[in-house]
Design brief:
Number of helices: 2
Structural class: alpha+beta
Distance between the termini: 54 Å
Low-confidence stretches: 13-22
Helix content: 40-55%
Order of helices and strands: HEEHEEE
Shape: globular
Radius of gyration: 18 Å
Mean pLDDT: 83
Number of strands: 5
Amino acid sequence: MIHTRAYLINITLCLSVLFVASCGKQHTAEQTVKDFVAENMKEGVETKRLDFGDLGTTRHINDSLIAKMRKTGAELYKSGITYGNVPTGEVYYLRMKYLHEGDTLQNTFYLDSELKEVVAFK
């Protein structure tokens, strides 16, 4: 009985630490994306009700896909955006939904491993 209780306490503590760490990453990524959007959205474009999905990672992004996303951009964003360096290995991504002129739009932002810079978006 004592061992079972200690085991449950350890599991609970480990899960709590993981939860707090993941919330910190989510918040950092959201702030990075908000800053990127504020800096790179075209003048006069208003967005409302930002909503973010869960932060995820992918290995399916390569240099050619990033180059294509950077070249294509998106209608509501400025051209000539400055991006962060393309990381090697996993890339984080974060989806953002927002309301613009009555339409719900979505962009996916790809971030570096430190969640400090957007490296591409679509």
